[in-house]
Amino acid sequence: MPLKVYNYFIIKRKLKSAATFYLNLKSLLSVFIFLFAGQAIAQNAAAKKDTSKLVYPFQDSKTIQLNRPAGIILPNPSNIKKSVEFDPISKRYIIREKIGERLYRAPQYLSIEEYQKYENQLIKRNYWRELSDLPLAEAREPGFIPPVKINSKSFEKLFGGNTIEIRPQGSADLTFSGRLSRNENPMFNERQRRQGNFDFDQRIQMNVVGQIGEKMKITTNYNTEAQFDFENQIKLDYTGKEDEIIKKIEAGNVSLPLSSSLITGSQALFGLKTQLQFGRLNVTSIFSQQKSQQKEITITNGSQQNEFSISADNYETNKHYFLAQFFRDNYNKALANIPLNSSNINITKIEVWVTNRANSTVNSRDVLALLDLGENKVYNTLQVQGGPGYSVYPAGFNGPGFTQQSNNLLQILPPGVRFTNSNEAGNFFQAGGGGTDNFAKLTFARNLTDKEFVLNPRLGYISLNTALNADEVLAVAFRYTVNGVEYQVGEFSTDVSVNNSNPELLYVKLLKNETLKTSLPTWDLMMKNIYTLGAYQISRNDFRLNIFRLDENTGIENPQITEGANTNGKLWIQMTNLDNLNQQNDRKPDGYFDFLEGITIDPLNGRITFPLVEPFGSDLAKRFDPVSEKNLIDKYTFQALYDSTKMIAQQLFAKQNRYRIKGTYQSQGGSEFQLNAINVPPGSVQVVAGTLPLQEGVDFTVDYNIGLVRILNQALLNSGQQIRIKLENNELFGLQQRSLTGSRFDYRVNNKLNLGGTFMNLTEKPLTQKVNIGEEAISNTIWGMDVNYNSPSRWLTRMVDKIPFINTKEPSSITFSGEYANLIPGHPRALNFAGSRNGASYLDDFEASRSLIDIKSAISWQISGTPQMFPESRLNNDLAYGYNRARLAFYNVDPIFYITGNSLTPENIRRDKNE
What we know:
Strand 25 and strand 26 (557-558) form a beta hairpin. The strands form 7 sheets. This protein has a 12-stranded antiparallel beta sheet. The protein has an 8-stranded antiparallel beta sheet with strand order 26-25-29-14-13-35-31-32, with no helix packed on it. Among the domains are: 1-50; 62-68 and 75-140, no CATH class; 144-225, no CATH class; 305-314 and 532-666, no CATH class; 320-525, no CATH class; 851-915, no CATH class. Helix content is 17%, strand content 32%. Mean pLDDT is 82; it is low at 1-48. It is α+β, with helices and mostly antiparallel strands and 915 residues long. It contains 17 helices and 39 strands.
């Protein structure tokens, strides 16, 4: 101790000596400057006055000024940093001012009493400065609503303060206007011709932040132009102190995350949430409405895995068409020996024409689509002759080098049919019966590009990218070769030149007419054996598909048939020819789907194609004996699916609609996975690899706006273990109200053991008491208990160290977790019927069995056509065609007779109001 004190005085003496030397040196320099420069300064003083002197000179002190002198003293620059340290040996405070790492002034040493006096002076000075600056600080606070102070001890104890502060931000536009309209319509009375009303419009974009004391905070954002309701957020937050029973109360947009795996919480909720503590027991309760839906996505081997379930009646309509009846009749034969395609046809050129809804003038021509063109078995047998003597292959073109014809349709057509402005086609086919069923005439038909459809050149069908509307027409012209012989059906746009003076039509093959009739051959041209999975880029890896049938008695999905002499024990996937090969493509069924690109599946567009034209109809009936197993044919076949429209098959033949196509598929591998949801609530995405929860920002990232998860840890994808992504997505157009209530109990026995319990109830409010079967509202209750134990173990570390060649450096721990949950299903009381508590759902209430036509509006009326059973129906160019039509008409006053200032109004009426 004496040695250190001695060193202290030595340093102080050295500093004093250095200061004396500095003063002496300064004096010498002053004398030198005075002797040698004084004369020059004196000579220039008279000529030029020195203006460098300050009016109010400031002199910086060489030491730290603890007591600031009177007057205006500027503070130190920001680069001068002051620090205070206490030396316990000397019991003194050391005050230093530095610029960077160097001392700006000599250090100042204060005793404890001197430093306390200095601190008291500093506190007084800051307090008086705060009081003097208070009016200016209040004026500079944001917002136009001044804070409100409540002088109440109870208020201050409840909210932790006595100040209420509200800070609104945003903009509000309010528009008030009046509108007066006058309509000189003679159909209105005098009072209705003059109308006046107010026009009120508002646009608000506002954020409000409110603070009540220190415990309660209110946050609100509201936008009248928000597209969805969940974009407007409101939240009230009350936070208690650590030793209070009420830890937190939230109202508005709240969340309930749960750490248990069997019972999961929710993020997008609107309601009330409380967090209470009773000693070691924490209770979290919630009373809210759920505004989101939970989903789960599975990733296996680095690919997103999804499930699909398709009913047999859900085939793709108005998208896939055979080019002729010949291709439909030979479809099963060509695919009888898959994976080989035995078809000897190759389509080399095709043009597809559809109704021009967009009024496009590019690649448009006038076409005449003929039903029997290129057909050996004709529909119009009264006028067209086919059958023996004509080509079995589709042929219908009169160009040079194409002598083959499937029938004589092109030879018997009148010459006037070729011209667009002629009605010869209608007159010709009207005479033979059928009328417009035999043809469709399109003006400015649109020619589809190669990117708008896909052609199967071997099997003879096209697949449109966009389904046709019910009243659109589809026609084609194509050329193909068979065993080196070339055939053509229809005329290409290059075969008939454009004639602007007298436009001519192209003869093409009709595939779909504007009126849907199941009795016409065009109904069979639409393929009904192609189903979409709703996905793209399907991977062959881990693709599973199976076909099930719902049992009539038990309702269980059965993958095989248990009846029939030749069918007992066979799988339905084998009965429909989707399983004929094993993994080596040998003709030995193995119970798995035959993944054959271009034949049974289109992996790019995600479509399943049956190698049978009617897999659940006539082709399935061929598996049974037509005489002894007639009852099995009636029981298992769904022939109405192919003989009638989809709507009729679904409504009138529901008992036969029992087949389901189910399975799983994977998309192509990668590190980014779409959640198929937008506006995902932040924090609601959970990723679990096997049983290990992953950490956001370390193992994965989430784009909550577009719904995209990116896996950062590539080792997880390459490991092959299953990755599950759980999420919630906000409902865009949710109409059904769901209420979620529940409580979570956590009892912390000690730092190692935690006991938990959960109770939750989810109730859906049905939109109507008449709910369809399978769409019933729920009122489910789930409860569970869990225990978690985690303790470090030195004993386990020592036991591991006793293993030869092992020396552990990390601490060991024992972790145990257990969980139990029970689900109690139920339904809301609104579904109870006739005093029963079991609930009721409806198979069909027959409300859709009738259609209403309003005859009060003239818009729904149009001039009717004459039925074909009347003899005058053939008089297309004669007024007698409509002599027997009902004379019912609507008369509206033309607006030109009462609109003021219309130049089209006749002059005698325009000048005379009475007229």
